[in-house]
Design goal:
Bound molecules: S-adenosylmethionine
Number of strands: 7
CATH superfamily: Vaccinia Virus protein VP39
Shape: globular
CATH topology: Rossmann fold
Strand order of the largest sheet: 3-2-1-4-5-7-6
Radius of gyration: 16 Å
Number of domains: 1
Number of helices: 6
Length: about 210
C-alpha cells in the first residue's frame, strides 16, 4: 500500500511504504543493541519525560518500541493506565506485561479525543513520514491541559548518523509551529543524555501543554 509521502527538505529518496517500515522494525526488534528494552532512569531523556508529564492518570507512549520509557512512567505512576502504541508487533511482544499495548500507525491513533493526560514520543516521530498527521493525532488524544513530550533528532545535524530512507529530523521551529497549531504552550530545548553534560546539538526535546 503506498504511503502518503511528504518530501523532506532537499531529499530525493523514493517513498517507502508503511509495510516496508513496519517490516524493518519487526526485524529490528531482534536487535537488542540498537532497540534496547530497558533504559537507565538517570538518563535525562527519561527524567525530562517524567518531569514534564508530572503525575498522570493515563499516558500514551507513541512509537513505544519495547516500552523502556513506559515501564518507568508506570513505576512513577503505579495506578496510571500506560499504553504502549507501536507499528511493530514484535516490539510490543517484548513490552512488560504490566503495561497495555496497542498496534497501529501514529498517523491514525485508535483512541478517543482527550483520552490521555500525558502523551510522549521518543525517537519515533522521525519515522512517521506524514509528520503533520502524526502530530495532529498525538494532540487530539491529549486531554485539554494535558502534557506532551517529543524527543527527536535535530535537522541541523542531519547526516551525523546512518538513517533509513524514510527518517526525518526536525528543525526546532518547524515542530514548535506544528505543535502550536494544537497546543496552548510549546517550548523546545537541546538536550543530552546526561544532565551535567553540555548538549552536542543532536537531540531536541519539544515540551507542550494543550
Ligand atoms: C527508534 S524506535 C524508538 C522506540 C522507543 N520510543 C524507545 O525510545 O525505546 C522507533 C519506534 O517507532 C515505531 N514506529 C515507526 N513508525 C511508526 C508509526 N507510523 N506508528 C507507530 N510507531 C511507529 C517503530 O516500530 C519503533 O518501535
Amino acid at each position: 500500500m503506498p504511503w502518503p509521502f511528504k518530501w523532506g527538505r532537499g531529499r530525493q529518496t523514493p517513498p517507502t511504504s508503511l509495510d516496508e517500515i513496519r517490516a524493518s522494525f519487526e526485524r529490528g526488534a531482534q536487535d537488542e543493541e540498537h532497540f534496547p528494552s530497558t533504559i537507565d532512569p538517570r538518563i535525562y531523556h527519561v527524567k525530562l519525560v517524567l518531569e514534564h508529564l508530572g503525575p498522570v492518570h493515563s499516558a500514551l507512549d507513541v512509537g513505544a518500541g519495547k516500552g523502556r520509557f513506559a515501564r518507568i512512567v508506570r513505576e512513577q505512576n503505579p495506578t496510571a493506565r500506560v499504553v504502549c502504541f507501536d507499528l511493530a508487533l514484535e516490539m510490543l511482544r517484548r513490552v512488560d506485561p504490566g503495561l497495555h499495548t496497542c498496534a497501529g500507525s501514529m498517523t491514525s491513533l485508535p483512541f478517543a479525543s482527550g483520552a490521555f493526560d500525558g502523551v510522549y514520543a521518543t525517537e519515533s516521530l522521525e519515522h512517521a513520514v506524514d509528520i503533520e498527521a502524526a502530530v495532529a493525532e498525538m494532540c487530539r488524544v491529549l486531554a485539554p491541559g494535558g502534557r506532551l513530550v517529543v524527543i527527536d533528532k535535530n535537522a541541523e545535524h542531519w547526516g551525523k548518523l546512518k538513517t533509513p530512507a524514510w527518517e526525518k529530523w526536525f528543525h526546532r521551529q518547524e515542530l514548535e509551529k506544528l505543535l502550536g497549531r494544537h497546543c496552548a504552550r510549546v517550548e523546545s530545548r537541546l538536550i543530552s543524555y546526561w544532565e551535567d553534560v553540555e548538549p552536542d546539538g543532536l537531540f531536541l526535546a519539544w515540551l507542550a501543554v494543550k
